Amino acid sequence: MNNPVLKLNEQGRGAFLILDGEEQLGEMALAIFDKEMVVYHTEVLPKAEGQGLAKLMLNAMVAYAREKGLKVTPLCPYVHAQFKRHPADFEDIWNKAKEDQ
């Protein structure tokens, strides 16, 4: 099993993926617009649940956002829950301006 890899198209849409060989075990769907990353959905195959794959993708996404100076809008329930549960860990990248929209 590999670390998460980011696949983006020319429009800035794509996902962090976790692959086991050719098989995709997890996906965190997102899009990047200017200096904003919108995270839409996180999913892990049932057979790969409980292995911390969602957390691996979260950590990769956060590291990428920090490296690129992006603010994150967490529309994904998993990512949003993690941001709310540990706000100090994500304060520098959390786009709270979009929370009430």
Automatic annotation (TrEMBL):
Keywords: Transferase. SUPFAM superfamilies: Acyl-CoA N-acyltransferases (Nat). The keyword Phosphoprotein does not apply. The keyword Transferase applies. Residues 1-101, 8-95 form the N-acetyltransferase domain. One of its GO terms (molecular function) is acyltransferase activity, transferring groups other than amino-acyl groups. Gene3D superfamilies: 3.40.630.30. It comes from the Bacteria. This is N-acetyltransferase.
